[in-house]
Fold:
Amino acid sequence: MILFPERLKELRNDSGLSRSELALKLNISTRLVCYWENGERECDFDTLIRIADLFDVTVDYLLGRKDY
Structure:
């Protein structure tokens, strides 16, 4: 299932953030954001929660378990 990469990229673009801006907000490398958006690596649980909080969505939404 490749919903997380798609949803992350969509949320980032809708928020007007570049990959580097998102990386700064999460205190991670820009390359890691790129890996996630390309489906090359998985996000750790703590960061997944921070992403959900940042974009005001649920973890279930990020993982493709719900459509809202």
